[in-house]
Description:
This protein is α/β, with parallel strands linked by helices. It has helices spanning 13-24, 47-50, 64-67, 80-93, 106-115, 129-145, 167-179, 184-187, 239-252, 262-271; strands spanning 3-8, 29-35, 60-61, 73-76, 97-99, 120-123, 150-157, 188-190, 204-210, 216-224, 227-235, 258-260. A 7-stranded parallel sheet has the order 3-2-1-4-5-6-12, with helices on both faces. Helix 4 packs parallel to helix 5 (106-115) and helix 6 (129-145) runs parallel beside helix 7. It is elongated and about 60 Å long.
Amino acid sequence: MTVRIGITGAAGRMGRMLAEAIARSDAPAKLTAAIERPESTLLGADMGELLGGDASGVVMSSDLAAVADQIDVLIDFTVPESTLAQAATCAAHGLPMVVGTTGFSDEQAQALATATAGVPLCQASNFAPGVNLTFKLAEAAAKALGNSADIEIVEAHHRHKIDAPSGTALSLGEVVAKALGRDLSQVAVFGREGRTGARDRDTIGFSTIRAGDIVGDHTIIFASEGERLEITHRASSRMAFAQGAVQAACWLVGQSAGRYDMQDVLADQESKT
Ligand code: NAD
């Protein structure tokens, strides 16, 4: 069965990359809807032509409900306010949803969970398979070294990114905090300035760089007396995120209602190979 995929934020950096990833995918998948905000100047544009190719017949529109019967799953990389609006439409039409958008407040994250309780939702701060392996390596390192090491997370992204630290950096923090039995909200330190005093061993530090066109770098450092372990992931193209999200979308169709992340997608596919 060909999986019919809709994209919200279709004209954005990730939206365009997702359309390309669907076109290149080995899985039987097809882009059948492209949604942008009502004020977008690109409404009416053909997605294929927008990407520099032939007309595809998929025309940018702004009303997800109007095309809901043309898609089997929605992929959303937009902004939290838009994701919440699209989630209500997905819930009303029983549509599975893949969410890559980051920067949700606690209240927005809760609202998303509530709105999508009756449909399959796959949400990840990072859909790149390598980052998901980084989470596992960080968890193992935290268990082995964490109580005797200072843990710092450094992330770098392009100048247009609107949230900080990145969702991926926060997920890395959650993974190591959980492995060490710490509550991230109690131990996170976001940047330092002035007379900070000595470092508390139990804290997890976050540093953010915003510059140029950096796609996404993450390093987690475990530093102790005399040695330092660093685990680094660098994304050199958004294609890594887009291919992961398309893989997640194809996997999500046919899953029961509930909440999943990229680790579930990869674990299920590993178990079948
Ligand atoms: P972008 O600004 O290039 O694209 C966002 C698009 O969403 C824009 O085209 C905008 O017009 C559109 N949009 C806004 N409101 C909308 C609405 N109501 N309906 C439809 N479209 C709407 O941003 P981007 O770089 O593509 O990133 C988007 C999000 O994805 C960010 O939160 C970013 O952090 C996240 N991201 C996640 C991953 C991951 O793997 N999870 C990877 C990269 C980026």
